[in-house]
Every structure is written in structure tokens, then in C-alpha cells.
């Protein structure tokens, strides 16, 4: 689990094609303090597993499904990426709960400077709009952000100078893609509301469970 508070910008050092997908070696500093093999780490909002580490770099494997569902398949050597270590029980929850499971990729439509900040408009697949509400939370490239406005499938996000200076959104331009993870709370609510007895529902599942559990034929 993550909070969407980016700890540092890492850099893609090498990209190697593998039978399963790709392997990245990422250079970093701050996140290396207590990063161990087997740990989860968010890379542009995608939860990956550290398979090797050295003093100032770590290695992750990406399967084809990850490359297909996120923008990690588009990046090249030298690209900056947002990094966040998995949260601990003593971590301040400064953003919102993230799983690191990217659902879709959105496209930046425009960046409009407003004082020292920027108003960013992104276009998102309409399928995921039901989980987006004004003033609600959303993660873009692993960054916890607040939706300022919604117009059909366009989301407006206000970016403060700190976010622009410390994340990849400061260097992203119109036409660039961003990984999207919508708020998990909305998905659980939808599941609870849709979980009823239609088509046999609970009775049918209970029957199958009892039949399996007690060996009934």
C-alpha cells in the first residue's frame, strides 16, 4: 500500500527485454535507505517488487500486462520516474490509500500556468469516470491529487509548485500520458451496492460452497 506522496525522482538507468516483459534498473538515493530485495515500491504509481539492489540502484521486473496497462512500456533510458516506498504502520497518511494497481492511462490535454502553479487538464477513459468526483482523490503517476473540476471525461487538477518541483508532472507536457489509479473507496462501495441475489446470488454461491465443503453430489 502507498500514500501517493512521492519521495524522490529516480532515473531509468537500463532497460532490458526479457521473455516475460522488461527489466528496469533504476538509480535512486533517498529510497535506498531501507529498501531490500522483495520489498514493494511504487514506480510512477505501479507497484513493483525489488529483485536486486546495490548502493544507489535497484532492479525490478515488469510483465507484459504491466507494460500494457501503464505508461511504463513507453519510457526510455534516462526517463525520470516517481518513487515511493510502501507505507508502514507509523507512516503519516499525507495523501490517500493507493494499491499501486494502475487501471488506465490518461492523456494530458493542457497545462495552464496559474501564478506559481499549473492547472492541468487530462482526458480519461469514460469507463473510469464513475469513480471520479469533484474534490475527490485520484492518483496520477503515483501522485495523490485532488480533482478540482469535471467536464464529461475531462478532469482538471490544480498543481502546486512543490508538486511541480518534486514529481514528473513538472516536466510532463500536453500529449504525454499518465498512469491513473482511482479512489479505492468508490470501488468498494460500488461492489457492495451491486452484490445482491440476482441470478441466484448468495444462495447459489452458498450452495456451491456447501457442496464443495461437505462433499455433496
What's the average pLDDT?
A: 90
- The CATH class of the largest domain, by name, is Mainly Beta
Order of helices and strands: EEEEEHEEEEEEHEHH
Level of helix content?
Answer: 10-25%
Largest sheet data: 6 strands, antiparallel, barrel
CATH architectural name of the largest domain: Beta Barrel
> Beta fraction of the residues?
35-45%
Verbal overview:
- The chain folds into two domains: 78 residues, Elongation Factor Tu (Ef-tu), domain 3 (Beta Barrel), CATH 2.40.30; 89 residues, Elongation Factor Tu (Ef-tu), domain 3 (Beta Barrel).
- Helices cover 17% and strands 40% of the residues.
- The strands form two sheets. It has a six-stranded antiparallel β-barrel with strand order 1-2-5-4-3-6. It has a six-stranded antiparallel beta barrel with strand order 7-8-11-10-9-12.
- A hairpin with a 2-residue loop joins strand 3 and strand 4.
- The protein is globular and about 55 Å long.
Q: What labels would you give this structure?
A:
6-stranded antiparallel β-barrel; alpha+beta; globular; 6-stranded antiparallel barrel; Elongation Factor Tu (Ef-tu), domain 3; 217 residues; single chain; 4 helices
Briefly say what this structure is.
By secondary structure, this protein is α+β, with helices and mostly antiparallel strands. 17% of the residues lie in helices and 40% in strands. It folds into two domains: 8-85, Elongation Factor Tu (Ef-tu), domain 3; 104-192, Elongation Factor Tu (Ef-tu), domain 3 (Beta Barrel).
